[in-house]
Amino acid sequence: MSLRNKIQSGIDYLIMKNGPHRYEINEHRITCNQCKNEFFHEGQAQLNTAGMSFVGLDWANKTATTLACLDCGHIMWFVKTLQKVPNR
Ligand SMILES: [Zn+2]
Predict the structure, then answer these.
(1) 31 with 14: CB under 8 angstroms?
(2) Contact 21/11 with Cβ under 8 angstroms?
(3) How many domains does the chain have?
(4) Average pLDDT over residues 58-87
(5) Which partner for 74 in 4, 34, 39, 87 could form a disulfide, CB atoms 3.0-4.6 Å apart?
(6) Beta strands of 11-54 (E only): which ranges?
């Protein structure tokens, strides 16, 4: 494999790993609440902060998955595991 192909493989891997991707939860496709886009960048957010305990959400503890809309930037939070929809 040439150096150029190795670099391209690395780039393809990073895009595959870091998105953007489409997601499902409980077999329902996730769409942006604002613009109905289906592609998101995935992230993680801590839930066990003092503020979250104050509002009674420390049952969730640990982390939430965040999805940032690729088009409008709206962020949605999920405490359940999401499934990535394979890109075609
Ligand atoms: Zn959006």
Answers:
(1) no
(2) no
(3) 1
(4) 87
(5) 34
(6) 22-25, 28-29, 40-46
Q: Write down how long the chain is.
A: 88
pLDDT digits (tens, 9 = 90+) for 28-67: 999 999 999 999 999 998 877 666 666 676 665 578 899 9
d(CA 44, CA 64): 6
Two tokens, residue 2: 């040439």
Return the percentage of the chain with pLDDT > 70, whole number. Answer: 74
Residues by chain with Cβ below 5 Å of ion ligand 1: 32, 34-35, 37, 69, 71-72, 74
State in Å: Cα 34 to ligand 1 middle: 5
**CA pair distance 42, 48, nearest whole angstrom:** 19
CA of 12 to the centre of ligand 1 (A): 24
Q: What is the CATH number of the domain that holds 76?
A: 2.20.25
